[in-house]
Design goal:
Elements: H1 2-10, H2 21-46, H3 48-67, H4 76-94, H5 100-117, H6 123-133, H7 139-142, H8 147-167, H9 198-208, H10 216-235, H11 240-243, H12 257-267, E1 271-275, E2 282-287, H13 288-292, E3 326-327, H14 332-341, E4 346-350, E5 356-361, H15 362-375
Parallel strand pairs: 3-4
Antiparallel strand pairs: 1-2, 4-5
Helix pairs in contact: 2-3, 2-8, 3-6, 3-8, 4-5, 4-6, 4-8, 5-6
Length: 379
């Protein structure tokens, strides 16, 4: 019994905070900016008493928008629809003549139910409804005109969030983007085919039953990141430097495409890195597909071994740049996802100065995965 009591006491401790101090400062600066704009504009348009009455719910909305922008509570629909819906409920109850205590209770409860129904749950909206219904503002004089200052605050909050969050590296709003598998088919990405699906997440959320304060897509990304870290731990410290090919063939931007084709054909390669002359800095890559776009058309049957390319064409004119490359310490798990989900056939490996030091192909990766699987087989 005593142990259960102490276990319960431990549940009262604060949850682990994942945000770094830099993120605290970013959110604090944003809240200060948007609240100064909101109060200044509100005082100018609607006067001091009304503006200050609505400032507290606006401040709570600002905290959600900039400190928890991934929350469903902080999405534009929740901010706009939630606040306006709550305002309408608060005004209606404020004009109803009900006792202040009863009106406040109903404002919070009805606001919550209606926001659930319209999928615009926004906790500060309940505060707006209570402030209005309890007489925090002169409802008799303003009536439904209170929708104007609330709408102004909500629109201003969303506009600043769209600008500030995206400029500081926080995608907002959280939208559901269709996944492209690179081949423009309806197949899932290779990394998703033996993993959980969207239906699995939906089923888990239904079984959980409670409201989860994270968007469904963010939850999916979080689970995938967890899977990736677990896989990395199980595989050990296998990096690109451990499995890459080091004896490489490459070309320069001034190499002719006939030379590139001959190198690829002779050594059975699918891609040829293009390096800056002298520094060996990786600046591009040429694939078989790139080359085949520039062969000289012929009236006779095409013989791949004797292709005639457009004369005088140099690799600088056809190479792909910039190049997706990895550092030598990139973990094998990261290589798996790049080579499978991004549809790449090879990954150049570079040093800190972006000089080419190796190449990881799909063959290298398959061999490494096989060796790792053998190592974990029971004796």
């Amino acid at each position: 019994m005593q142990e259960q009591f102490f276990d319960w006491i431990r549940t009262l401790a604060p949850a682990q905070l994942n945000a770094q101090p830099r993120e605290w400062l970013r959110a604090a600066v944003a809240v200060a900016i948007v609240m100064s704009l909101s109060v200044s504009l509100g005082v100018w348009l609607f006067g001091v008493p009304l503006t200050l009455s609505l400032a507290a719910p606006a401040g709570a909305s600002a905290v959600l928008l900039f400190a928890a922008s991934s929350s469903p509570f902080a999405q534009p629909w929740s901010i706009l629809a939630g606040n306006l819906l709550a305002t309408g409920i608060g005004v209606s109850l404020g004009l109803s003549g009900l006792d202040t205590q009863l009106a406040s209770m109903l404002a919070a409860a009805l606001g919550l139910l209606c926001m659930f129904a319209l999928r615009c749950l926004h906790p500060p909206g309940c505060a707006v409804a209570v402030v209005i219904a309890s007489g925090g503002v002169d409802v008799d004089a303003l009536g439904y005109a209170l929708l104007q200052p609330v709408a102004m605050n909500s629109l201003l909050l969303v506009a600043v969030a769209l600008l500030y969050n995206n400029l500081t590296g926080h995608a907002y709003p959280k939208s559901r983007l269709a996944k492209d598998n690179g081949h423009h088919t309806r197949d899932p990405l290779p990394g998703d085919r033996i993993s959980f699906t969207g239906d699995d997440i939906d089923q888990a959320l239904r079984e959980f039953g409670e409201y989860v304060d994270v968007t469904r897509d963010d939850l999916e990304r979080l689970i995938k990141q967890t899977e990736k870290h677990a896989l990395r731990r199980s595989m050990g410290a296998i990096t690109a430097a451990d499995i890459m090919s080091r004896d490489l063939y490459w070309a320069t931007p001034d190499s002719f495409i006939e030379q590139a084709w001959q190198t690829l054909q002779e050594h059975r390669l699918r891609a040829l890195p293009v390096l800056e002359q002298g520094s060996r800095k990786l600046i591009g890559i040429v694939t078989l597909v790139d080359l085949l776009k520039h062969f000289q058309p012929s009236q006779t049957r095409i013989n791949l071994g004797r292709l005639k390319f457009l004369r005088g064409t140099k690799l600088r004119a056809i190479m792909s740049a910039p190049v997706i490359a990895v550092q030598q310490d990139a973990h094998m798990v990261d290589l798996v996802f790049l080579l499978s989900d991004r549809g790449l056939h090879c990954l150049p490996v570079v040093d800190a100065q972006q000089r080419l030091v190796g190449m990881v192909t799909q063959t290298d990766l398959i061999a490494a995965l096989y060796r790792n699987w053998l190592k974990h087989l029971p004796d």
